[in-house]
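Sharing a chain and its predicted structure for anyone who wants a worked example. Both blocks are below, sequence first, tokens second.
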Amino acid sequence: MVKIEGMPEEQFYIVGKIVNTQALRGEVRVMATTDFPEERFKIGASLSIFNGDKLVEEVKVDGHRLHKNFNLLHFKGKDNINDVEKFKGMDLKVAGSEREMDSLEENEYYYDDIIGLEVHTTDGRNLGKIREIISLPSTNDVWSIQQPNKGKDILIPYIEDVVLDILLDEGKVIIDPMPGLIDDVDDDEDETEKGDN
């Protein structure tokens, strides 16, 4: 939550990270962390730039294009590389009031609704918690699940055949892993048990 003088506290949600500048005319390269880049980065969209928890500046998008795996954005009044270089490494966020205007389709969720949910298999095994969502261009997202035993993360594709149910109220996801998807998890657990004897 951020308190802006004269306004009630506002919740902000991260939609991208400014990873670099692009050329000399004030564009920035953004690694999107939203499933809705076409909405969040459209011309006229209002965004807030944060350095950690500190609001640095509010900006309005007046240019957006795709280049490789990046969204290239231009902000109104920022026409030179010197105007935007200071933003490198900072987060782009959208105000909660903006996000509330979105209408999600059935089975659409915000990343922050999913991150932190426990992942259980259909046979009841707890695989861990969703630590990160990896958004891949022109394919499905991949969920990185941090195992409770601190082994390496499990990568699960967010596809209908694998993710059966998302139970936000219960804080968990039910999956039916394809053969071979989490077999090495069982092997890691077996090795741990053998080493403890």
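Comments welcome. Confidence is low (pLDDT under 50) at residues 187-197.
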